[in-house]
Amino acid sequence: MTEELKTEECINETCPWSGKPVSADSLMRYRDRVIGFCNPGCRDKFQKAAVLFDGLIGTTRQAP
Question: What pTM does this model have?
Fold first, then answer.
């Protein structure tokens, strides 16, 4: 069963990539919050970046 997300739950009104208004077909849940984008392409781009950075944050780097 897929969770139905609603624009009313969205923490932002504009897409962080384009600055355009959030679209109901471009929402996602991230860190227990609903965030929105102007189109599915922007949503997918964010999801890829978030996975990358979440992975990097989870690793420990030691200074040289």
Answer: 0.79
